Prior knowledge:
nine-stranded antiparallel β-sheet
Amino acid sequence: MDRRPFRLIFPLALALALCALWLVPAAAADPAPMAPASVSVATEIEDAAAQALGDNPPITATHYAVTHLSNPSDDYYMLSVAGLSTTTPTDWNMFDDAIWWGNVIVYSDAVTTSAAVAGTMTYTQMISAAYGSGTQESMQLDPLVASATSSEAVYFPWQPGTQAMTGSCDSDGTCYNAHQGCYGLSGDIAIDFFGGGLYRDMPNMIYASQSGTVSRVCQDDYSAGLVIGDFGYLHFQRQVGNNFNEGDHVSRGQALGPLVVGNIPTGSPCGYASQSASSFHVHWCAIPSGGYLRVENWTFDVAADVWRYGSEVVKEREYLTALWNGSAPPSTPMPTVTPGGPTLTPSPTAMYSPPPEVGGASFWDPIVYGISNLIGGVLQATPDHDEIGLATTYVSAAATVFRVSFVLLNSNFNMTVPFFAVGLMLLFESWRIVKMVARKIWFYIEILLKFIPFIG
C-alpha cells in the first residue's frame, strides 16, 4: 500500500489546526505609562491611548503625554501624543523631554473603546473610518500612505517685505542658527526667527511656509504649536491651538496666528522661551536633506550653520528678508518698508529625505532559505528521491510558516502554541527522515557485508 498520500494529509491537517490556533488573541501588553496631558482628556480616551501605545510602542519612551485632542467624526477622537524620556513625568516639556511626536486614534461609544497608534494597519482602518476612505485627510495623517515630500517652494513664515533676525543664543553667550527641532525625529532642526522689541519689522503674525495637512497640535496654558506638512511652528499664543485640528488643510501663505510676546515659563509642556517683554519669536522646524534646506532662494547649510545666497552669507543674529517671490499673503497689503537684500528669482523647490519604505524582506528569510538550500543539496545527493524527496515539501512549507509566523509576531497574536506545535512537527519529520536514511545506509552495509567473504 502506498503510504505517501497519508504522510501528506497528516501535516496538512496539522497546518490547518495551527491556523485556527493563530486566531487566538494574545494577552494585551501593559498600558504605556502616561505623563499629565497638556490639555483636558477624558479618562477612558487616555486609557485607550495608553493601551494602544503599550501594545505597539512607536519608540522606547519612559512616558507618553497627550498634547491635543480633536473629534473628526462621531465616536472618533484624534490625539497628538508626545513620547518622553524623563524621570520627572509631572514636569515635562517638548524641548527637554520629547523624543517623538505622533498620533493615536481612539474609537469610543457607549459599548466599546479601542485605539491604534500611527503606523499600524488598525490605525489605517480607523483613520479611513473617521475621515473617509481615500480622502486627503486620511491619507496625509497615515504614515503608511502619506509622502513627506512636497514639490511646492518654501516661503519664510513671516510677512513678505519685512525682516526677521535669525538664530538665538544660550545663557553662556553661545549663538547659533540651527538647534533642537520639534518633531522628536532624528535629523530635524529648528531655527528661531525674532521680531518685536529691539528687532526689525517682522509683524507678529506667522504664515504657513508650505501647503499641507495639520498632523500634530500642542496646546498648554501658555502657548501652542503646530506641525503642518513638512514644517513645525512653536510659540503661538495659546488660543491658536483652538483654531486647528489634526486633518485640517492649510495653504501656503495662510495666516496661522500671533506669537507669544515675552517669556514663556520654563517647563511649559509646549516649549518655553526666554525673551524680552516686547519681543517674540517662532521656533520653526524642518528636516533638511543631505545637510541642506532650501527656502525661497536661500540655502541653509546645516554643517556651516549659515544661510547662503550666491556669495552672500547670513550668520546667526543677522537679518533675512521674506519676499515670497514678490507676492503678498492673501488679503494682506504689502508693507511700506523697503525690502532689503537681493532681488530674488523664482525659488527652487524644497528638498527633503524620502519617506521610509514599508514592508520588504524579513530578517529570517536568508536563514530559512539557507537551511532550505542546504537540505535540498543533501537530498539531491542521495540515491533515492522518492521517499526523501517528500522532505522538500516540508522544508518549503516550513519556510512559509516561519515567514508568516514572524510577521504575526509583530501583531497581537499568541504564537506560543503554534510555535510549539510546529516545532514538534519538524522534530517528528526530522526523526523520520533520519531513520529512513539510517535504514538506507544499513541496507547498503548489509549488501557490502555479503560480499566480504568473497573479497577475503
